[in-house]
Every structure is written in C-alpha cells, then in structure tokens.
Amino acid sequence: MNKYIDFLKTNNIKVTPQRIAIIELMDQYGHISVRDIFAKIKANFPTLSLATVYKNINAMLESNFIKELKIVGHDSKYELVKEDHSHMICNECGKVEDIDLETKTLITDAKKISNYSIDESNIQLFGICPECR
Ligand SMILES: [Zn+2]
Ligand SMILES: [Zn+2]
Asked: How far is the CA of 4 from the centre of ligand 2 (A)?
C-alpha cells in the first residue's frame, strides 16, 4: 500500500492507519459505502466512531483523492479517483461495476441540445447482473 501512503503525502493529506485501512477497502471492493467501511474496519479500530469515518472520507473527498458515487435509492458509495467511467448497478444485489463506455458523442449531443456547459458526467445503468439473472 506504499503507493497510497505516497499519494496521501503528496496531496498533503495526513497519513493515519485509519485512512490507509479505508483506502485499502476501496481498492479491494471498488465501490463501498461508509456504513460498509465502518462495519469492516471496526474490529481493527475498536475506538473508531462512524463520525470519524465520515470525517476521513470528507477530507479525502476535498483532496480529490476519492469520489462519491450518488446512487438513487441507495447509500452513496465511494471509490478511488481514476479515469472517467460509467457504472452498471444491479437492482437485485446492489453491486456496482465500472464500465468503459464511449460517452463523448453523448456529451457533445447533450451540450448541443441543451446549450449547457457540462462540468461532469455520471452515467449509471441499472439492471440485473449476470449472477442474479
Ligand atoms: Zn446482482
Ligand atoms: Zn467506478
């Protein structure tokens, strides 16, 4: 996990064992909610409160180290910042997966039609995953 320690340091985010643990979980699960993070790291950090997990998440959000994924009808999930991508979400098991889609045309069309300037896109497709079908 040295790469994350370096990254935290270069972004002036204080390196703490809790933060390393949170980042490790995001790396392992890809997309994870604060509640799930808390449930999983509680055993290793018995004095840690849910509020502290939120504080750590907010600090890392501010530094653009992680990204919030707001999902209608579900808890927000958090992931490490990487290349822009879209998401597939299973309505049955709630699993979230990354998918690389060509969104350039879509965004260009949206700009043309709406006359908006577009700051970010967040494309989510909901359905039933192969395991649940
Ligand atoms: Zn599923
Ligand atoms: Zn993702």
From this structure: 18
Q: What is the pLDDT of residues 34-86, one digit of tens each?
A: 999 999 999 999 999 999 999 999 999 998 889 999 988 888 999 999 888 99
User: Which ligand is nearest to the Cα of residue 99, counting in written order?
Assistant: 2
Q: What is the value of pTM for the model shown?
A: 0.85
Give 64 Cα–ligand 2 centroid separation in angstroms: 14
- Please give the distance of CA 3 from its chain centroid, rounded to a whole number: 18
User: What is the residue type of 7?
Assistant: F
* The length of the chain, given as a count of residues: 133
Cα 87 to averaged position of ligand 1 atoms, centre (Å): 13
State the helix-helix crossing angle for 50-62 and 34-41, rounded to 10 degrees: 120
- Domains of the chain are 2-80 (1.10.10.10), 86-127 (3.30.1490.190)
